[in-house]
Amino acid sequence: MIQGSIERDICPIGLAADLIGDKWSLIILRDISILSRQTFNQLLKQNLEGISSATLAKRLKRLMDIGLLTVSKDQTHSQKKLYCLTEPAIQFIPIIFNLAHWAESHHHPSQIFVKPIEAYLGDDKGLIDNFLKGLRQIHLEHKPIAEVDEIFLELAS
Q1: In CATH, which of 3.10.50.40, 1.10.10.10, 1.10.150.130, 3.30.465.10 is domain 22-156?
Q2: Domain boundaries, the chain
Q3: In terms of pTM, does the model score above 0.90?
Q4: Measured between alpha carbons, how far is 110 from 116 in angstroms, rounded to an integer?
Q5: Could you give the angle at which helices 125-139 and 87-107 cross, rounded to 10 degrees?
Q6: Which of 22, 87, 123, 128 has the fewest CB atoms in 10 Å of its CB?
Q7: CA gap 35, 49 in Å, rounded
Q8: pLDDT, tens only, 1-41
C-alpha cells in the first residue's frame, strides 16, 4: 500500500486501485453490504466465488487497515465478531453498483445474480441514497436488518 506523503504524488485512480487491491476486496465488500454477511463464517461459507479461509482473513485485515471495515461484537453471541462497513466503505458501494452495471451491460453475467440488484444498477439516485441510508443504520448505528428496510432481508436470503 502506498503510504503518507507518497499518496500526494500518485494519480487518484492508481491510489484507488492500490487501496482496493484485488477482486477479493470487492467481493467481500459486496457480501457485507449487499448480501448482509457480517461474520467470518458467513463470508467464508456463503461466498459464491470460493474464497479460502487464509485469503479471507488477509483481506478482512487489509480492509480494516485501510479504514473500510471495523469489527464489533455480536450482541447475540459473545464470541462472534461482526464486520461492519465504515462511512468511506458505504460511500464506495455506488461504485460497486456501477461496476456491476458495466459488467452486466457488456459481459452478461448470470441473471440469477443481477436480478436482485437490478434496480440499483441504473441512475435512480434516490433509490441508491435510500440503500446507503439503510447501510448506515445497519453498520454505523448497529440497527438490526429487520428494523431497517425489507430490501436488506430480501438480499440476505
Answers
A1: 1.10.10.10
A2: 22-156
A3: no
A4: 11
A5: 140
A6: 123
A7: 14
A8: 445 555 567 888 888 888 887 899 999 999 999 999 999 99
